[in-house]
Amino acid sequence: MAKSWLQDHHDKVQGGELFWYGGKVMAKAETELERAVELLGKQLAKNVQVDLGRKAGPTKSAPDRPSSKPGEVPHLRTGILQGSITDNPYRDGHDFVTQVGNKKGPASPYARILELGGPINHPGGTPYWVDDHGAHFISRQKADELLAKGIEVKLTKPHSYRLQARPYLRPALDAMGPAIKKELKAAGGRMK
Predict the structure, then answer these.
(1) How many whole angstroms separate alpha carbon 8 and alpha carbon 80?
(2) Which of 1, 73, 97, 191 has a CA 20 to 30 Å removed from the CA of 30?
(3) Using alpha carbons only, what angle is made at residue 94 by residues 90 and 96, rounded to the nearest 5 degrees?
């Protein structure tokens, strides 16, 4: 007859006493929990990348695509933010941690402000032109083309505004809540 998990982790019962090797139990529990936390971090990073790629935003070749609205996951423009998502599992004392977010790089300056919102201090100098339908922000190349045709192009002045949050990390974490509970419960079950 095979031993149960509990029988595997105690020596013997003598005189009404159970000798239990808690160190072995804790080592197994730590191994399973560490594996679960690492797995969940990888899945969260993947989910964030998928979410960031769901809707295409404006690009040079498709400037009429809509930008994300406040509260929405940012729409894909260049893929730099999406490509910067990473997971970093590590131990902090007795805790198992998986940090999911943006690695240092080209996305760093705007990753945090998209997630949380905040003030933008714009230096100005963005070209735009005005027609019957309103103002249109344009590329420098387009500005040069319009100027060559004699169409007036203006430049924005330095200004500040508050960008409303377009969170992409927190919604993915919230959506994973049930999966996190399920995986941590499963990790406990694998200790058999």
Answers:
(1) 51
(2) 1
(3) 35
Q: Answer whether 53's CB lies under 8 Å from 82's CB.
A: yes
186 pLDDT band (50/70/90 cuts)?
confident
Dist CA 167 CA 170 (whole Å): 6
- pLDDT tens for residues 25-49? 778 888 888 999 999 999 999 999 9
CB neighbours of residue 101 within 10 Å: 16
CA dihedral of residues 142, 146, 147, 151 (deg, nearest 10): -150
In terms of Cα–Cα distance, which of 89, 77, 75, 84 is closest to 34?
Answer: 89
pLDDT at 191: 60
Which tokens is 164 given?
């409303």
Q: For residues 102 and 88, what is the distance between their CA atoms, to the nearest angstrom?
A: 10
